[in-house]
Amino acid sequence: MTSTTSNDILSADIEGIVSLFDVTPTDTPTPDDERVAKLAAPKFGTVFTDHMARISWRREDGWIHRRIEKYGPLQLDPATAVLHYAQEVFEGMKAYQHADGTVWTFRPEQNAARMARSAHRLALPALPVDDFVAACAALVRTDRAWVPATPDSSLYLRPFMFASEPFLGVRPADEVEFLVIASPAGAYFSGGVKPVSIWVDAEYHRAGPGGTGSAKCGGNYAASLLPQQEAAAKGFDQVCFLDGGTNTTLEELGGMNVFLVMDDGSVHTPELTGSILEGVTRSSILRLAQDRGRDVVERRIPLTELIEDLRSGRVAEVFACGTAAVITPVGRLAGETFDATIGTGEPGELTMAIREELTAIQYGRTPDRHGWLRRLA
Ligand code: COI
Questions:
Q1: pLDDT in tens, 291-315
Q2: Which atom of ligand 1 approaches the CA of 324 most closely?
Q3: pTM of the model
Q4: Does the keyword Amino-acid biosynthesis apply (predicted)?
Q5: CATH number of the domain residue 208 falls in
Q6: Which DSSP string do the residues of 317-375 spell out, in sequence order?
Q7: Domain span at residue 264?
Q8: Residue 355 belongs to a domain
Q9: Is 255's C-beta closer than 6 angstroms to any atom of ligand 1?
Q10: Per-residue pLDDT tens over the stretch 223-271
Q11: Are residues 221 and 257 in the same domain?
Q12: Number of structural domains found in the chain
């Protein structure tokens, strides 16, 4: 089934910008048989297409030189600002091939708008939404052959922007690069859709009040690496962070937002306090749960309450979500003072139903009643 309310064409404004991209094809295209082999079972984020989209920014000129060029290493001066002060933001999106061979992406304006908000927080320039979407479309059209056709696979798009000016002073850079790279992707977790275990960390925070928590910037992810490593050493797949202000309420997993499904059927997720990423998947799930008549509650979720609700069985399901991971069931939650299996430890019913519905929309298997899809190729 194809989508009913999706945008079959990009706006004339976006198409106009796509046509501004100078395309310089790679002189070393991946041979067809090699590409097919690479597309067979790509490990998340390890295989890249032949090209990348790029737009430069100079304080005096604004955004200039829209281009598609050969994918490859960037030559950076050792003094490049991003290497020292981490002035960088990024996004995560996917391109999905539908049964009729067309290629679509999901709510790209949301990612573009979030990148502009993240950029603002990092004192980087805002890239207009149309430029952002056009860059994704130009790259996907150039590397169309890299969009996987196998079920549940997609072409993961990674738009990012960084301070490229070489200097050591601490001030916003006057030169910035925006790029989009693309990586064929299968499942984010190697075991496929199976419940993950989460360590609730009361020792480290990924963000604090007034910090960069709601921005999608590399520094937040860097701050999550050590806690993640320590949790892995304890045998856990992921870490859930508490708020940095009081160390008492749930925030997010670093790379994913978190949801609880209660035994009364209501769906709860930490409210956006300024230090939680405003996930596009998160907001789509809230909408799909509402459509099902579920009570949806965005609120502060105290850890003490969660522990009590896990003990009493009030928490029926827990899941995490993000573009890369889609919706991932959580089978076990533990921290210094508790260790709980969620339900039977198997994926929850609503978790899997919403996962199926969301992916059916993304892959065009069900009508896109919210008009979330945009056709790229
Ligand atoms: C995404 O879900 O797209 C992200 O950017 C998270 C990242 C940890 C893979």
A1: 999 999 999 999 999 999 999 999 9
A2: 2
A3: 0.95
A4: yes
A5: 3.20.10.10
A6: EEEEEETTTEEEEEEEEEETTEEEE-TTSSPPHHHHHHHHHHHHHHTTSS--TT--EEE
A7: 196-346
A8: no
A9: yes
A10: 999 999 999 999 999 999 999 999 999 999 989 999 999 999 999 999 9
A11: yes
A12: 2
